[in-house]
Amino acid sequence: MSSSPYSGTVHLDEARRVAIFGGTHGNEMSGVTLVNLWMNNCAEIQRKGVDTKPFITNPKAVEKCSRYVDTDLNRAFTPENLSTPAGGDLPYEIQRAQEINRMFGPKGSPEAYDVIFDLHNTTSNMGCTLILESSKDHFNLQMMNYIKKAIAPASCLVLLNEHPLLKYSTSRSVAKHPVGLEVGPQPQGVLRSNIFEAMRVILKHALDFIELFNAGMHFPTCTVEVFRVADRIDYPRDANGNIIAMVHPTLQDCDWEPLNPGDPMFQTFDGKTIHYQGSCTVYPTFINEAAYYEKQQAFVTTRRETLVASSIRKA
Ligand SMILES: CC(=O)N[C@@H](CC(=O)O)C(=O)O
Ligand SMILES: [Zn+2]
Question: For the Succinylglutamate desuccinylase/Aspartoacylase catalytic domain, which residue ranges apply (predicted)?
Answer without folding.
Answer: 15-210
